[in-house]
Amino acid sequence: MSTLFLRTLREDPADAELPGHKLLVRAGYIRRAAPGVYSWLPLGLRVLRNVEAIVREEMDAMGAQELSFPALLPREPYEATNRWTEYGPNLFRLQDRKGVDMLLGPTHEEMFTLTVKDLFSSYKDLPVNLYQIQTKYRDEARPRAGLLRGREFIMKDSYSFDVDDAGLASAYQAHREAYIKIFDRLGFDYVIVHADSGAMGGSASEEFLAISPHGEDTFVRSTTGEYAANVEAVYVPTPAAVDASTVPAAAVHDTPDTPTIETLVASANANHPREDGRAWTAADTLKNVLVMLTHPDGTREPLAVGVPGDREVDAKRLEAQVSPAAPGAFEDKDFAAYPMLAKGYIGPGVLGSDKASGIRYLLDASIGEGSAWVTGADEHGKHVFNLVHGRDFTADGVIHAADIREGDASPDGNGTLTLARGIEMGHIFQLGRKYAEALGLQVLDQNGKLTTVTMGSYGIGVSRAVAAIAEGTLDEIGLCWPREISPADVHLVATGKDQAIFDYADTLVGELESQGLTVLYDDRPKVSPGVKFKDAELVGVPTIVVVGRGLEQGTVEIKDRRTGERREVAVAEAVREVVAEVRPEATA
Amino acid sequence: MSTLFLRTLREDPADAELPGHKLLVRAGYIRRAAPGVYSWLPLGLRVLRNVEAIVREEMDAMGAQELSFPALLPREPYEATNRWTEYGPNLFRLQDRKGVDMLLGPTHEEMFTLTVKDLFSSYKDLPVNLYQIQTKYRDEARPRAGLLRGREFIMKDSYSFDVDDAGLASAYQAHREAYIKIFDRLGFDYVIVHADSGAMGGSASEEFLAISPHGEDTFVRSTTGEYAANVEAVYVPTPAAVDASTVPAAAVHDTPDTPTIETLVASANANHPREDGRAWTAADTLKNVLVMLTHPDGTREPLAVGVPGDREVDAKRLEAQVSPAAPGAFEDKDFAAYPMLAKGYIGPGVLGSDKASGIRYLLDASIGEGSAWVTGADEHGKHVFNLVHGRDFTADGVIHAADIREGDASPDGNGTLTLARGIEMGHIFQLGRKYAEALGLQVLDQNGKLTTVTMGSYGIGVSRAVAAIAEGTLDEIGLCWPREISPADVHLVATGKDQAIFDYADTLVGELESQGLTVLYDDRPKVSPGVKFKDAELVGVPTIVVVGRGLEQGTVEIKDRRTGERREVAVAEAVREVVAEVRPEATA
């Protein structure tokens, strides 16, 4: 440490929000170069390389082959798959000196597909699993939390190529198993959840989330433990149709000054009591929410979403459902363009039944056929009661947009849901034939006929993993790395004024290194013991060895960074004891 | 090879010029993604990683510390050093979604300087040597020969930081020694030459060139072997002033129809014989060449260069001398703007003596004081004879722009020069204080005063090395890798119809791998022996082992890829013999 390019900071950096991000900067692992763009200092680079090595080993072990594509890519393949447009402002676009359009790769489906097309031509060539560990670029609107959501970041992306669906399912399963091994080795709490397939197209998809209150993703788990999904991927089953024959005919009532659900429920209970005597609740009302979609090509389209009045439209679920379009607010000027919309009293009439608005109308999946509602009558101060879905109105389709709540029934029919937050660390995905079709990847099948290849796409956020693990393992005093990715096996602190201390510490470092351990050696001559101990706690190497005052009595101290447990061991036993601490499995 | 993502090609790719580039594509090492942008297939990636590992080991061994900067960088630091402008169209510039200017890093002096400034503040912190192995971007006007001159490429760049010149000299020397170790291990012929410091500013500088007829760089070596330089860096010593007192007064003569040196010499000898009876030669004439410079900021400036009539202005030497401006042709419209220039008869009068043109005029360094010349008289059909430099005309300065020829005197005064071509593989460079000054990198010295840090900058073209080594080691039948960077230690070909052959080959592969060797195993069941042998020759692993017909007699064949030598060894000896072939040093 007397020569290491490292300076720890006592103060939190101004631009860091999360504890892990603050510590990574303070402990000298990373530095910000631009918003969402980070430099790796020596300690950080070691952790990054350790994560990469684990990912590489397990990908190789499953038979995937490593290659490496450029980050600077031509426009044409991304044009062929429409992603040049679909990615919108998230794509870094540039022109070269000849004015040719290029991009910085956000993910490489196109390039892998074209390369397999270039090399392979027969079903006999398949299956093949290919991967790279490579720098990617996305111009995030809100780069966040250091490495957690960066604009330049390192990903492992892999792709499977198969002739049939069974092959894809098996490649998917092989990736799933490799990912479990990787995330187990990385040493943090994670959960595998059903995922929304989003803009990628395709079908089956799961995410590996690091469980963290700082996560951007909300996920649900059922109380039985059998169901887990990203909140965007919770597909509430549509209830079976109910018999509405006893529901009275729909009737419009005056409900002055009831532009909100609360005011409506109060007015309904006061002035229009229910036939069966039960009170009206927000759950009996149908709320129609308008949003303005912006499609990737820039065109705008209004959309109406009907949800039960006791629920909100969940922004992320809506976003996932309408992707690649982006939902935005339906503003006053938009209302002005649609005078048939009575703000606060919008109903399925103008949206669904007579289509007077011309606006696409989707009903939340929880709204079954035969259900009766109190909802807007498309006139200020009026609502319609007992409006029955399927009898009195229909919509253009179904959407999964209402918010999901703790205690909701699990979509698998067993137990209820609990909610938590997580950081997306990995994503596995049965992509299907979308890219192969767009780019013409076909091979001859057993009958000599051309068949389109089916693909899987699998990602791990490698630089994000460093941040997520830091976040998930830190404590009040600093970073606290899992052994396999720690920048060193041992942090050896030599402290004292006696030259014998440093002489012995030098020897001990050499002996530990000859045992194959990596040692971060604090040999700084004029730094106080307090500063050295604080730095060791901040840097977060799991085993701290102190060579100091005890040496006169023939002992050194071994300290567990996580538990804080310390013990004195005899100098003669020091190497054996430290090795046992670092590799308990080898000595057990 | 039955599952490897590899397909060799029999045909040369259409866009490849050089033999090595053709073979790297044909043998399945790389594929073009865009002009000057390449993808690494599995075999290519292995070679690249082997080169990286050698570079990393030697950089670590010299005490340099690895970190990693982003490729996507903010404009401001490059603005501060003026490189945002100086790099001109070679820089990939882009804007993010907020319209903020960014760039793709062509080299990282700025970022390293700022990070040292961020972390260090005292002379006690220095010296420090930092490096990264990272992807860089330059929008080359003419991307060339695959990996040799790419627009996305991998470089090791390192930087030294010292408080004084002695420290810089010592860091430079340490890098020089590490580079020698690296290039020795990479296993190809190279030469270390003096280099021009070009746009980087600074002083001492050397290049490591791979000797190759396909190189873009021309270099000279003296016949004594003591002097070697890139042709741009040859500084011809200015001759001592000679006594011109016996030279007759300058006189203008009619020399009609002599716009070229040949016609001028012929006319002079015919009509104006020399006083001393010797014939006029081209070497007695002074040619004044006009070029139009374009400065990085886009402004244009005419420049006149005077060279002896028997020499040409060397485009690369000129370019190096006027950098960061770029020289271009002086066109007819430019002549129209300077009517005082009599095309074909331009002389030092209008350029040098009376400065009527206002054009900057530089004389080649070979033109000494007191030398007499036949040169243009600034009037069509007229030349001036016996015009003496220093007596009759002067210029605005000196330039090293005349071409260098085989047999020229060596600038060190010993022997003459020979010319050859090379590929720039490495560059070491005493940068000095340019970047530290521009970015304010100062530390407190021993007296507590702020002092500006002095820097060195050192680069190795890692991806280029793969191409250069391929180019330098190939033969008529394929690639031919040096051992340390070969994609595998052994290429094992199993061939025949007998299952016993493949069974034994499987075993042998396992045994070789357990000895720590990497084996490229051609286990393809239905491929002919001829195709397998051709592929092995093309792929270029140094040791080829054939398990085939000989197996019945209890032998396998070991073949040296480079020499073609083959020998049969007994099955019982096979592992030992192959290991001895791959690691002769370990068994000698």
Automatic annotation (TrEMBL), chains A, B:
Residues 31-482 form the Aminoacyl-transfer RNA synthetases class-II family profile domain. One of its GO terms (biological process) is prolyl-tRNA aminoacylation. The keyword Protein biosynthesis applies. InterPro entries: aa-tRNA-synt_IIb (IPR002314), aa-tRNA-synth_II (IPR006195), aa-tRNA-synth_II/BPL/LPL (IPR045864), Anticodon-bd (IPR004154), Anticodon-bd_dom_sf (IPR036621), Pro-tRNA-ligase_IIa (IPR002316), Pro-tRNA-synth_IIa_bac-type (IPR004500), Pro-tRNA-Synthase_IIa_type1 (IPR023717). Keywords: Aminoacyl-tRNA synthetase, ATP-binding, Cytoplasm, Ligase, Nucleotide-binding, Protein biosynthesis. GO terms for molecular function: aminoacyl-tRNA deacylase activity; ATP binding; proline-tRNA ligase activity. Its main location: cytoplasm. Its EC number is 6.1.1.15. It catalyses: tRNA(Pro) + L-proline + ATP = L-prolyl-tRNA(Pro) + AMP + diphosphate. GO terms for cellular component: cytosol. It is found in: Cytoplasm. It is an enzyme of class 6 (ligase). Consists of three domains: the N-terminal catalytic domain, the editing domain and the C-terminal anticodon-binding domain. Homodimer. Belongs to the class-II aminoacyl-tRNA synthetase family. ProS type 1 subfamily. Catalyzes the attachment of proline to tRNA(Pro) in a two-step reaction: proline is first activated by ATP to form Pro-AMP and then transferred to the acceptor end of tRNA(Pro). As ProRS can inadvertently accommodate and process non-cognate amino acids such as alanine and cysteine, to avoid such errors it has two additional distinct editing activities against alanine. One activity is designated as 'pretransfer' editing and involves the tRNA(Pro)-independent hydrolysis of activated Ala-AMP. This is Proline--tRNA ligase. The lineage of its organism: Bacteria, Bacillati, Actinomycetota, Actinomycetes, Micrococcales. The gene is proS.
